[in-house]
Design a protein that fits this description.
Elements (H helix, E strand, L loop, with lengths): L1 E4 L6 H13 L4 E4 L10 H11 L2 E2 L3 H7 L7 H15 L4 H12 L4 E4 L2 E4 L15 H4 L1 H10 L4 E4 L6 E4 L3 E3 L9 E3 L6 E4 L13 E7 L2 E7 L3 H9 L6 H9 L2
Parallel strand pairs: 1-2, 2-3, 5-6, 6-10
Antiparallel strand pairs: 1-11, 4-5, 7-8, 7-10, 9-12, 11-12
The structure holds zinc ion.
């Protein structure tokens, strides 16, 4: 049994709520699909918690951007990236500062764990490719190529901040549309690519924090209330972070 968290985006309030829920359920192992930083106001604290609490953490495009360089970022994402870099650089305690940079410098882009593949983006382009629900209609070849690339039965991805399950037809179901809402088999006959949604910046019009738990061959999709106003206000009070990055948390988009 293990929990999967993804796309925290420096949202400490969401991350703390999720970790408390994981602890309350007695789940001991946690994996992270990346984008620990970017957008939100608490990059230092989020990195520290991910280092301390997870089995491994993948490299997301925002983690990559902060350590290396932003790739295909819009203006507000790029500003948030450079602000995050400055905050990490300004840490007065050298040991803490070095530990965080070391963490960002060593993030893997793909991990196989318990016979499943874990990436931030997609099986074929693990850091930057988005797998959208609409791709089922608008770009099915992208999904088919990714299923072809996938050697395992199941793959967990983040990146779009929208939870759901891709089956290799290809087909997409949101957690509410599953035959048992909120639950899906991980090791069926069909290959699956599963997104557990975003901890710190959901984009499916549900502002609650999202994460998943894998237990006994099943993934459970979980949503949690957290102190959104507190996370939003920190962003609004940071000039380098665009107000929109806070407002969108209230709407889950
Ligand atoms: Zn993200």
């Amino acid at each position: 049994m293990f929990a999967i968290i993804s796309d925290i985006h420096s949202n400490l309030e969401a991350l703390e709520a999720i970790l408390a829920d994981i602890d309350a359920r007695g789940v001991k192992k946690i994996v992270c699909l990346g984008d620990v930083v970017g957008y939100g106001a608490n990059p230092r604290e989020c990195i520290d918690l991910i280092i301390e609490r997870t089995e491994f953490c993948l490299c997301g495009n925002h983690d990559y951007a902060v350590f290396y360089e932003p790739y295909n970022f819009n203006v507000s994402a790029e500003r948030a990236c450079y602000w995050t870099r400055q905050v990490l650089e300004d840490e007065p305690n050298k040991a803490k500062r070095d530990r965080r940079w070391e963490f960002l410098s060593r993030l893997p882009v793909r991990v196989v764990y318990e016979d499943m593949l874990f990436v931030h983006g997609s099986p074929r382009r693990p850091v930057n490719e988005y797998l959208f629900a609409d791709d089922v209609y608008s770009n099915p070849h992208k999904l088919l190529a990714n299923f072809e690339r996938l050697q395992q039965k199941a793959c967990f991805v983040g990146h779009t901040h929208v939870p759901g399950v891709f089956v290799d037809d290809p087909y997409f179901e949101s957690p509410d549309e599953l035959s048992e809402p909120g639950f899906h088999e991980v090791a069926e006959d069909d290959k699956v690519i599963i997104n557990v949604g975003s901890a710190g910046q959901p984009r499916d019009r549900d502002p609650r924090a999202a994460y998943g738990i894998v237990d006994n061959g099943q993934v459970e999709f979980i949503r949690l209330d957290y102190d959104i106003d507190k996370a939003v206000n920190k962003i609004l009070n940071t000039p380098e972070l665009d107000d929109f990055l806070g407002q969108r948390l209230l709407e889950g988009r």
